[in-house]
Amino acid sequence: MKNRIKIHNPCPEKWDDMQDFPSGKFCEKCSKCVIDLTDKTDQQIRDIIKAANGKEICGRISTRPLALAAAGIILVTNLSFAQTQTKNSFNITTEQKVTEITKVSGKLIFKRTKKEIPNAEVFFICKSKYIKTISDENGNFTLEIPNEMLERKNVLYFDFEKLNNEVYKNLDKKPSHLMQDDIYENTSIIFLKKEQINEKEFQIDSQHRYLELGAVVLTSERPPDYYYSDGKSISGKKFDQLKNENPNYQYFLFTGKEAEVISKKGDLSSLQLIFSN
Q1: I need a labelling partner for 232 at 20 to 30 A (CA). Which of 28, 77, 78, 175 fits?
Q2: pTM
């Protein structure tokens, strides 16, 4: 029996803007792996289709109707439309299997007001990669995480910096408005590989804008800080240089248990990560 492939509308995300991934790229917009099929032979395409098992494949393809036909694939689409989209990313639905994924979904609620938090950045973070999505207007989010990225312990991170910055801009104009706005506390969640996180509600605390100074505690020896750029260990000086020269890079700072889980190191003061895409 021949395989049947459905090519839906091409993904609007540019290939060069996606994160590098072992099998191709990772699309933040769709939270899915995208396999690069443009340089595959007929046999390699056959093998990819054969290795699939009823789940959706996102792939980057070129106009190769003869090669596709030789691979025993019937395109259930308008061929002329597909040909105009050379080397674009398409959703390909097959009767086969692709990389296994784990879905993590939830809802962000501000504890003080019990209101949903829309437009928050939600990250699944590894030392060398991250997966990102944005909460919708009702505070809901879903991440699709390739199982190969999951460890025994993992970190889910809710980042509200962009939302809080918008509030701070308003506060600069109207200082008395402080207590009327929502200032969210960036929050990390540690979860186990086998743990099911489906439509879970996460209560987010309020962040204090002003810090209270307390006593200074001196220790005889401070644990080391670790710095990584795209998963590669670098010096603190090099890290600061990259961060200062590339303000658009994605940056994370972790301490405590979250830093230990991501770095897989037991004795550290902080873990700082920077990603070029």
Answers
A1: 28
A2: 0.60
